[in-house]
Design a protein that fits this description.
By secondary structure, the protein is an alpha/beta fold. Helix content is 39%, strand content 18%. The strands form 3 sheets. Strands 1-11-8-7-5-6 form a 6-stranded parallel sheet. β5, α7 and β6 form a beta-alpha-beta unit. α6 packs across α7. It is globular and about 55 Å long. It binds guanine (GUN). Guanine binds next to β4.
C-alpha cells in the first residue's frame, strides 16, 4: 500500500484563498485590514528568511505589514519599549517577536510583554492558559499545532475517538497539539498520549496510534515497523542533514529529513506528510489566520 500524501502546500493555498476573501469583505464592510508587525533582532539567516516569508504572505493577503528589524545589540529595555509601542497601536492586531533572541535578552520577559490580545504566536502564558481551559476561552492557538490540526481535518482523517500519539513534549508543538486534540470540540475529541525521551517503550505507543504526530527533532527516530497499518502520520521534524545544490536556483540548500523514515513509512501508513512540504507551510498560514482573528475579536465579529 502507498499512503496518501498530505500536501501542506495545497492545503496552505486553499486556506490563504479563504483568508483573502474574508480580508476583502472586512475591508469593504468595516474599512480596516489586519495589521501585523514582525520584530527581528539581529541577522540570523534562518530568522531573516522566516520573517521575510511572513511579511510577504501578509502583504499578498492585503494586510498592513510592518517589518521592524532591530540591531543585535538592542537593550532589553529598548525592546520592551518597542513592544509597548505596538501594544498601544490600534492599527496593529498581531505582534510577532521572532525567536531566538540574543543571549543578553530574557526571552520570557519579552514574550510576556506582548499584549495577550495581540499574541498571534500563542506563546503568552495567558493564551497557553486559555488553551488549557478550552471552549470559548481560546483566542490564539500556537501556529504549528494549529496547522497540524488543519492538515488532519482537511485531509479527511477522523480525529474524534482516535488514538493519537504525540512524540515530543515541547511548549511549541508537543504540549499544545496534545491539548488541542483532546478538547471537547469538533476536529478534536481524541484520546491523546504524549511520549517523550523518558518514555519506556516508544515503539509500543507508536504502534497503537491511529494518528501519529512526531515532533522530536531526531532524524529517522520513528521506524517503519512502529507504524500501525493505515495510520495517519504527521512528521513535524525538519532536520538539516546536509547540503545540496538546488536544481532550480543553482544555490546551496539544506537537505531536510523528517523524524520519520518517509520512504518506508509511506508503504505502511494510510496518509503521511512529506518533509519538506507537509507541516512547514502551515505555520505561516496559521499566523495569518490568528492575525485576522485578532482583528475580528476587536470588531466583535469573531
Ligand atoms: N522562530 C522559529 N519559529 C518561530 C515561530 O513560530 N514564532 C516565533 N516568534 N519565532 C520563531
Amino acid at each position: 500500500m502507498t499512503a496518501r500524501l498530505i500536501k501542506g502546500t495545497e492545503i496552505r493555498d486553499e486556506i490563504l484563498k479563504e483568508l483573502k476573501a474574508e480580508v476583502d469583505k472586512i475591508k469593504q464592510e468595516h474599512g480596516v485590514v489586519p495589521g501585523l508587525v514582525t520584530i527581528l533582532v539581529g541577522e540570523n539567516p534562518a530568522s531573516v528568511s522566516y520573517v521575510t516569508s511572513k511579511i510577504k504572505t501578509a502583504k499578498d493577503l492585503g494586510y498592513k505589514e510592518v517589518q521592524d528589524n532591530q540591531p543585535e545589540d538592542i537593550s532589553e529595555g529598548d525592546l520592551l519599549s518597542l513592544i509597548d509601542k505596538y501594544n498601544k497601536d490600534d492599527s496593529i492586531h498581531g505582534i510577532l517577536v521572532q525567536l531566538p533572541l540574543p543571549k543578553h535578552i530574557d526571552e520570557k520577559k519579552v514574550l510576556n510583554a506582548v499584549d495577550p490580545d495581540k499574541d498571534v504566536d500563542g506563546f503568552h502564558p495567558v493564551n497557553v492558559g486559555r488553551l488549557m481551559i478550552g471552549g470559548s476561552e481560546v483566542k490564539f492557538l500556537p501556529c504549528t499545532p494549529a496547522g497540524i490540526q488543519e492538515l488532519i481535518v482537511r485531509s479527511g482523517v477522523e480525529i474524534e475517538g482516535a488514538e493519537v500519539v504525540v512524540v515530543g513534549r515541547s511548549n511549541i508543538v508537543g504540549k499544545p497539539i496534545a491539548n488541542i486534540l483532546l478538547q471537547k470540540a469538533p476536529g478534536a475529541n481524541a484520546t491523546v498520549t504524549v511520549a517523550h525521551t523518558r518514555t519506556k517503550d516508544l515503539a509500543y505507543h507508536c504502534k497503537r496510534a491511529d494518528i501519529l504526530i512526531v515532533a522530536a527533532g531526531v532524524p529517522g527516530l520513528v521506524k517503519p515497523e512502529w507504524i500501525k497499518p493505515g495510520a495517519c502520520v504527521i512528521d513535524v521534524g525538519v532536520n538539516r542533514v546536509g547540503e545540496k545544490i538546488s536544481e532550480k536556483t543553482g544555490k546551496k540548500i539544506a537537505i531536510l529529513k523528517g523524524d520519520v523514515d518517509f520512504d518506508e513509512a509511506k508503504e505502511i501508513a494510510g496518509s503521511i506528510t512529506p518533509v519538506p512540504g507537509g507541516v512547514g507551510p502551515m505555520t505561516i498560514t496559521m499566523l495569518m489566520r490568528n492575525t485576522l482573528n485578532s482583528l475580528k475579536y476587536r470588531l466583535g465579529i469573531a
